Amino acid sequence: MPPIRIIRSPARSTTAFIQCSGVLVINNYGPLLYKRLGFSETKQLLYPAAWLTLAVGLNMMASFLVDHFSRNRFIAVGVFGCMVTLIIEAALLAQFANSSNEAALQAAVAMLFIFEIPYDWCLDGLQFTYIAEIWPAHLRAKGMSAGVAMISLMNIMWLQAAPTAFENIRWKFYLAFIIPGTIGSVIIWFWFLDTKGKPLEEVAAIFGDVDEVVVYQREIDVSADDASDDTKQKSFHEEGGQTKHDQGAREKA
């Protein structure tokens, strides 16, 4: 397989697997979800507002976390974490969606909020970082476009299907996220490559496209002696300039 295909495939599949987390449906059809749980119209609007407010704080926290873990495994953990919350959510809806068990209904709401922790910490911002990093510099714009195009395609697919699916198959619609999302988390963990800490100019090499790399960071050796020589030369030029300045001042005097 040509190297460019190896690079291009994770760009599309990463965003596709992440959109299988179900975040688009939760975000866009939040009021519908809370309505089916039996909450009032006021809470149907308040809960989505609180959900989005929480997302802001979690994304800010994520900016301090992403560079401490390998890219592919952090994404895999995020997708799998979302799947765990959706499994619990589906189980609660299957058992208590039409009941008066308030504790179970509140637990269903809690799962939608807990869902945000793995999504915002591991996926929301990192997906754009990762799909940008895996492309060589001269193709990075096209790679980002391919990844964002996949997000848009998944957006259309899930959001068009959601109202009809919730009306007809109800909680079983969550299985459409759980099954591919779980499979995707395994694929990302074992087969996607880590780009953390690698210079963007060298990323192409880990996909087998070594001809794209002109020089590697490990080959750049700035020794202490070279640094000392540079310092001495700089000091020499500065002293020479100061001497000429002093001589010129004396001549004018």
UniProtKB/TrEMBL annotation:
Protein topology in the membrane: Multi-pass membrane protein
Gene Ontology CC annotations of this record: membrane
UniProt keyword list: Membrane, Transmembrane, Transmembrane helix
Biased composition (Basic and acidic residues): 229-253
Family matches, as Pfam families: Sugar_tr
Protein's cellular compartments: Membrane
Bilayer-crossing regions: 45-67, 74-97, 103-122, 143-161, 173-193
One of the record's GO molecular function terms: carbohydrate:proton symporter activity
Signal peptide: none
UniProt cross-references to InterPro entries, sorted A to Z: MFS_sugar_transport-like, MFS_Sugar_Transporters, MFS_trans_sf
Main location: membrane
Location of region: Disordered: 224-253
Protein name from the UniProt record: Major facilitator superfamily (MFS) profile domain-containing protein
Organism name: Zymoseptoria tritici ST99CH_1A5
